[in-house]
Amino acid sequence: MRLKRPLSVVLARQLMKPVFPAIILLTFLVIATGLKLGLDSEEDAQIRQTLASDTDSLVRQLEQDFLNHLIALRRMADRLALQPDMPQAVWREDARNYLQDFQTFQAIEWIDRHFVIRWLEPVEGNADALGYNVAFSEERREELERARQLGRLDISGVINLTQGGTGLVAYAPVGSGADNRGFIAGVFRMEKLADALIAPRVHGNFSLALIEDGEVAFSLPARTATNTDFSHTTAANLPTVQWSLRAVPTNEWIDQYRSNWPWATFISMVALGLLVSLSTLLAQVVLKRNQALLRTRQDLEEEIDQRIAVQQDLAHLKSTDPLTGLANRRFFMEDLEHTLLQAERQMRQVGLIMMDLDRFQMLNDSLGHQFGDELLVMVSERLNRLSDERVMVGYSGGDEFMICQQHVEDIDDVINLLGQIKACFAEPFEIDNEKHHVTATMGVAVYPQSGMDADILLRNADIALYRAKEQGRNTYQFYTEGMQEREVRRLELDHDLSEALARNQFELYFQPQLDLVTSRACSVEALIRWNHPQRGLVPPVEFIPLAEESGRITEIGRWVIRAACQQIRKWRGTPLENMRIAINLSGRELGEADLTDYLARCFREFSVEPQQLEIELTEQTFIENVEHNHQQMRRISDLGVHLAIDDFGVGYSSLGYLRDFTVDLLKIDRSFITDVAERHDDAVITRAVINLAHNLGIRVVAEGVETEQQLLFLKQHHCDMAQGYYMSRPVPAGDLPAVIARGLLPVRSA
User: Fold this and answer.
1) How far apart are CA 70 and CA 67, in angstroms?
2) pLDDT grade, residue 729 (50/70/90)?
3) Which CATH code of 3.30.420.40, 3.30.70.270, 3.30.300.30, 3.50.30.30 fits the domain covering 319-481?
4) How are beta strands 159-160 and 154-155 bridged, if at all?
């Protein structure tokens, strides 16, 4: 009698058949296809929803902007109604102001009671419209009569303009009923209206059609091909006209909302199915190779035992830093050497990351060493959460940390770890009930590409760290060939910086500041230059960061104060004797407790009035360590020294410190002045800053003035002073009297 095999044995035999992996792969393929189709459908729905939202938002913004133009016309009509005897010249000046403020208008017209255009501005390009009867049809006459009787706005819809092209006209009645004196009309050319109100918002992402009475009245094509499978139409709520805006997106816009998830899911599921199938095949092979597996396990246990033995030995060498609880430098380096030996045998890569905290020295100096120690402990706790069998975190000293990553398969493994490290600094650190946002800069070296032993790898990671600092901090940089040579040059320049202080190789250049009321120079800004014996004139951007890193920035700042006082004394008895000099101070210099004493000593030594010196500080400096800075600047102000906020508008621009700090001058950042005569937003911001400062009793300087149009704008809006290449570049002290004598404004030939 034949015995029945156990079910487990039968099942095991079936699983071992070669067709079973193929069935697994086919199952995963079907699942992957279904998931991809579902994700594609969900993406299409999301794109249509986003398109509808963008189109609705565009229409709402278009309504608001267009209504603002109509309100402006209504305001001008009301003014004419109140002043019926307004001279034509006054009306034209008023119209030009509106044209300047609302640059969307093609022209502004006054239409008399007989519907004839009598005045218009500008005449150039619109002269053909003078004397034209706007009631060109019985329908238009009825609509205008109704608007005149009711005193309400009327919009013509899209029409052919007398001066050429298509556009629309908005009519604001001057009075109503029997008191009506005609209309103030705003003429919009459709192309200009689209360029001003629509084009800046769509950035070429849509093909737009303006629909009036069911017909396309105006269209704005996209720069690239559109996808007609997606479109959305939204009605606009405007007086007397029925408009709808239809948006058809470009393929590029749609691609922004397409993700790789459908294909990634499909490929992942197929890959997973393939992996499971291959795993099944491999399992069949592995079952036949039990002895090889046992030998591998024995080798692994021996390696683990060796690792434990090494860790126990190093623990006796005081391997842990007492403050942070992390591995100290000695332990870390010995472990790194052992890791590199293992990596060499296994032909694997190892990543070494050097990290230090940004601006730690400044925080430590200003808030105390106890604060610095607590911050280091908190950072160590967060970093230590990354430690596992592949990642080791160590403390090098100061504000530097070391992270070693073993078994690196691909550079993406290191980049992923860098992201985890940055995430450790996402939340602020709370110390003494105050939250402090701290960032970190990292340098990365990868074995074997960046070094074959621990010392070289560490040195190259340190070089990459300094390179990352030069690029702006709160970032990371991988070591590459050529960095070492750059680091040598940096160290040479750092060494030369010490020689420069000892040998007095610095020089002050001066850039005049023009008083816009008197058109004369009233003050100058002192800008430091380094006369290097081999490299020539070195600009501040190359050596000031080095000085801040090394702590020499304080010595340089003291040199600048002393040199400025010496220059004021040299000008005594000359036409420049009343000139005020503005100098820049860093946050570290402001944090020096004896700064005011040093200023007072210099004033006494050179017999200089404190009012002839002005200190410029950036917005960032104002808000760092607010309590200490407030006291320090009050002491400086009490000496009689002027205080100025430099680069105003690009930092926090908090009104609180304008109220709480003693500030004499605001310097508007050059980024707002560059396009102030062309960009409406920059013009509005600049006017607002000037008005705000004047209301607070603060004078205003505009930096970066390079054109006549910029200067005229600043004069028209009552800016106090201007500084920039249009008046004068920075010049040595010996050239300044000639520059001042010939005048700062260029002479225009007739």
Assistant:
1) 5
2) very high
3) 3.30.70.270
4) unpaired
* Helix runs in 424-517, H state only: 454-470, 483-503
**Rounded mean pLDDT, 350-357:** 92
**Distance between CA 395 and CA 403 in Å, rounded?**
9
- Among residues 672, 674, 692, the alpha carbon closest in space to that of 682 is found at 672
**CA–CA separation, 505 vs 528, rounded Å?**
10
CA angle at residue 494 from 488 to 499, to 5 degrees?
125
Pick the CATH number of 50-253 from 3.40.50.300, 3.30.450.350, 3.10.350.10, 3.40.50.12780: 3.30.450.350
Q: How confident is the model at residue 255 (pLDDT cuts 50, 70, 90)?
A: confident
Largest CA distance in the chain: 130
User: How far is CA 412 from each of CA 417, 441, 446, 475, 621, rounded to the nearest angstrom?
Assistant: 9, 18, 12, 16, 38
Distance CA 252, CA 250 (A): 5
- Burial (CB count within 10 angstroms: exposed 0-12, middle 13-18, buried 19+), residue 423: exposed
* DSSP string for 169-224: EEEEESS-GGG---EEEEEEEHHHHIIIIIHHHHTT-EEEEEEETTEEEEEE--SS
Cα–Cα distances in Å, from 509 out to 145, 540, 638? 69, 11, 28
β-pairing verdict for 476-478 and 440-447? parallel
Q: Give the type of residue at 176.
A: S
Query: For the CA atoms of the chain, what is the radius of gyration?
Result: 37
* pLDDT band at 486; cut points 50, 70, 90: low
Dihedral sign, CA of 411, 412, 413, 419? Answer: positive
Written as one string, the DSSP assignment of 209-263 is: EEEETTEEEEEE--SS-B-TTS-EEEEEEETTEEEEEEEEEBHHHHHHH--SHHH
In the chain, the amino acid numbered 197 is L
CATH topology of domain 512-525+565-742: TIM Barrel (3.20.20)
Can you give the residue ranges of every domain in the chain?
Answer: 50-253, 319-481, 512-525+565-742
Residue 401 near residue 393 (C-beta atoms within 8 A): yes
Structure tokens at 266: 């499909």
Taking the C-alpha atoms of residue 682 and residue 668, their distance in angstroms, rounded to an integer, is: 11
Q: Which is higher by pLDDT, 514 or 100?
A: 514
